Amino acid sequence: MQEIKQIFLVSNLDSNFTHLGHPLVLPAKNRVAAYNFVIDKFLNKLPTYKANMLSHAARLELIRSVFSAIPVYYMANILFTKKLIAKLTAIIRNFWWTGVRENDSKKSLCLRSWKDICNSKDEGGLGIKNLKAINESLLLAAVWRLAKLPSSHLYLVLKSKYFHDTSIWKATATPPKSAFWASILKMLPNLKAHSFYQLTQGSISIWSMPWCAHWDTIHDHLIPQQASFSYPSLVRDLWLPGQKTWNQDFVFSLFRQPIASLIVKTDIIDDDGPDLLCWDLTPNGICSAKSAYKLNLQQIYTNPRNVPVAIPLDLKNLLKLIWKQKTMLPRVQTFAWRLLRKALPTGLRAGRFSIHISQICCRCGQQEDEFHPFFLCHFARVAWFSSPWFLRSEVLLQGHSTMHSVLIALIQMDHPNGSIPNILNFLWCLWKARNDFLFDRKKALPYQVNIAAIALNLDFDGVLSCLCNKQQQVQGEHSIGNHVPLQGTTLKSDLLIVGPKIFSDAAFRSNKVPDLPQGEVATGVGIFISIPSDQGEINVQVQASASSTSTPLQAEAIALTSAAHIASQLNIAHPIFLTDCLSLAKCAALRNTLDSSIPWNIRKDLAIFFKHTSALHLKVFHISREINGIAHDLAQQVFRSTGNTQVCCFSQNHSSISCHVVSLISNLQIPGVKLHTVHCY
């Protein structure tokens, strides 16, 4: 050993050895102490001479960009304890409210609960990430990668040590276990609850992988067979030989109900790719850290103590409008949030926490509630009554008991200066003037508040106009003419293309369609085909209905697939498929169901679309709803159809000959779709 050390010049591996800042050896009894260096990293990012000079908006940005990123690497490897999460959260919370103080023994003045601050901006919070949810989401994403890549080196190492005779889906806790594996096992139930395989080859295990509903209890529904019977091992063993169709007789003889019926209802994608592991909480079927974070945050909210306080709808909508204002400075937006969420340290509010804080106004000696420094103090009243407002501020408060109702009424007054940025800039300048007088004894005149508010608008407008001019210049340099774009992109006009055009649309309304059994609903499908010919243009209008769909995208995919069936039946060469669903057009142009950008719930329909158009040399484009008007109207009119299937020709060119459209489509059967009308013009 000593000779090897002399050759390679390596140090001894002890309990303090780290790799990339992470300890390689964790003590089993006190893993919290091993991660104290993470706390030190947080504290080292808070130099007193800099952090205390930051506004709340700057602190918020520092928390999002720096503090939330510090523990990410370590959180991806181990599930932090509640005690460690609480310490890290306390550092961030204290920094948000009070900056950094040399005497850490003093408590911060927290005027709003941290769970309210960590709520999303759409729900009235500031969008700061919950550290516990981040930790669990990163580990859940790690479990997903393990299940997605069973041939990876890490998976093989874990399999040989912890679940050598099964898959990770059936892994159990077998001590002794590492900190990483123990964390993985805690996240495994979430993976099982929201993951499933889309079957293409059926080369996955029947007994230990999530390929159908209730797969984890499939052994309980097994019908015992004779001793000489050889049980199937792979999913494809339950298919008919050489076909991607369920062998129903075999399935019902092997499994009890209801699992047998669930198996034969499981979709099989007609594609040559491998079986796909999908995550049902994202459109593309990939478990991202973002979707995992949302899932874990919802689970944290199952505890009533962790649920943020609900706010009125009008306040929520007002906050959304404020965050959308591009002409407002971030510090004014953050001030507006503190004002509306009752998080400003006014005298009356802050004085409840300390006897050293005066509850009266520093200017007029009245009690300083949340309205006083902005509307009732003589300084604020003079500022409101001067140019450009000319308003009596005490009148604004009549009939209102909350700050957000006052601001909403002020916005709705149609005052020439009453835009959201102008109002909040003015209120921010009032608050700044109050703080300057209270802490620095800087005396300002009321008219100077309006001048400062106008200056905020002018400064930001200048920057914004400069950016707009640069953007217009770049757009002018890269402007393009009316040429045909790439497939999957938007086509400005269908007149730019020549050839057979097939328009499709779906009416995503699960309504009653005539000629369906009582109680059943469906989705309307409209298809319009324009085929140029020597005898004149041939137009075909098709109305159909499909079984009720779960999403608008799935309905559009069924409409596109139905159009592909008809195009294949009519043998239309070089067709151009046009849809008003941009995401569907992009997916169809890829010509690959295995692409990660394709939503998992339309992979089966796209596989059918690719199969029927493989020899047609097609093109796919996105068009606007106006251009797709005929197909849109056909889809909507399905719900008012007579119910009887009508296939007829009204073309004068076909008066002396039989219509090939009618002859080819009369007996067309599209799985899951019922044709209502087919008219040839």
UniProtKB/TrEMBL annotation:
<dbReference type="Pfam" id="PF13456">
    <property type="entry name" value="RVT_3"/>
</dbReference>
<protein>
    <recommendedName>
        <fullName>Reverse transcriptase zinc-binding domain-containing protein</fullName>
    </recommendedName>
</protein>
<dbReference type="InterPro" id="IPR036397">
    <property type="entry name" value="RNaseH_sf"/>
</dbReference>
<dbReference type="InterPro" id="IPR002156">
    <property type="entry name" value="RNaseH_domain"/>
</dbReference>
<dbReference type="Pfam" id="PF13966">
    <property type="entry name" value="zf-RVT"/>
</dbReference>
<feature type="domain" description="RNase H type-1">
    <location>
        <begin position="523"/>
        <end position="637"/>
    </location>
</feature>
<dbReference type="GO" id="GO:0003676">
    <property type="term" value="F:nucleic acid binding"/>
</dbReference>
<dbReference type="InterPro" id="IPR026960">
    <property type="entry name" value="RVT-Znf"/>
</dbReference>
<dbReference type="GO" id="GO:0004523">
    <property type="term" value="F:RNA-DNA hybrid ribonuclease activity"/>
</dbReference>
<feature type="domain" description="Reverse transcriptase zinc-binding">
    <location>
        <begin position="309"/>
        <end position="384"/>
    </location>
</feature>
